[in-house]
Amino acid sequence: MKKLKLLSIAPLAALPISVMSATTENTNSQPKTKNLFEILRFNAQFEKQRASLTGLAAVLIEQTQEQQLTNIKELIEKYNAYFEEFCNKYITQDLYTKPDTVAWLSGHMSRYRFVLNALTRVLKIDDVLNNRMTNATTGEETEQPASAPVENESESVNIKEFKQDIDMKIKEEILDKTISDEAINAEKATNQDHKKQDAYEKVEDKIVTIIHTSLLELLKTTDNKLFDLDFFVDKLLEENEELKNILIKLENDRESLQTDLATAQKDKESLQTSLTNAENDKKSLQTSLTTAQNDKESLQTSLTNAQNELKDEQKNNLTLKWAMTFVSILGVFSLIFLLILLLLLLKRRKKVEDKD
């Protein structure tokens, strides 16, 4: 367990100071240091690891506490290995691009101090030292946040000595005549790149040793919740609960979306049926329209025929009328002729009778 407590802080030391500064902004009763998983969210260098962490956290929801504890141990060791790889590569960045050896060493020392400053921010070293200095000056006790860990005087001294010791050791290494001479000679040996690399590697090894040794000493003398595995277990369980709630919400959203999708599918089928019916109605109306047009043409033809028949009948009636008129006139004249003839016969008969 002690080993795991030491390992658990290692990834935090590799974070940029801009990230670490975000963890000390809150001055309320909540702890100023965010948990590992919250910090990693803001660090692009750990993006891939964060993705795997999120995936692991989702898996841990369904596991027992014993399984969770085992996986968390493996996770911390994984991040510690990543930190070791980060430190080993950190100082070799742009290794042969600076001609000035002292400037090169100073630049890489600044990078290591950059990492150390980030570590001190996580450990709230600056706040502790400021509180102690204020207390020493004013003689008043500075109120500590309720949920923040309480550091004792020896811890504050250890941390302060650690900062001073690491800076002093780094400066000594930069000014160390043997290392400087080796590095400068390597710079001059432009045709002997392997010597230059060997010299730089010696510098790297000593610096890495200083950092790691001092860091381990600090961890051994510091009692902080950041080194407590149970703290990370609780935080991970909280994270799991949040993820579980998110998963539940997503599941509800998924079910809602599935319901909406099913409803939309039914609406689509209904609309498709309506469209098919409309198409059929259109075809039926088109057929009816064609039939009506044909009936119209047929009626038009019948009307034309009827009009022609009417005209013919009217002509026939007119001819018949004139014929009847002629017959009537002829009958009248015939009757008159017969009357005249009858009168003549009567008159002649009378004359005959008179003669007799």
Automatic annotation (TrEMBL):
<protein>
    <submittedName>
        <fullName>Uncharacterized protein</fullName>
    </submittedName>
</protein>
<feature type="region of interest" description="Disordered">
    <location>
        <begin position="268"/>
        <end position="292"/>
    </location>
</feature>
<keyword id="KW-0472">Membrane</keyword>
<feature type="transmembrane region" description="Helical">
    <location>
        <begin position="322"/>
        <end position="346"/>
    </location>
</feature>
<keyword id="KW-1133">Transmembrane helix</keyword>
<keyword id="KW-0732">Signal</keyword>
<feature type="signal peptide">
    <location>
        <begin position="1"/>
        <end position="21"/>
    </location>
</feature>
<keyword id="KW-0812">Transmembrane</keyword>
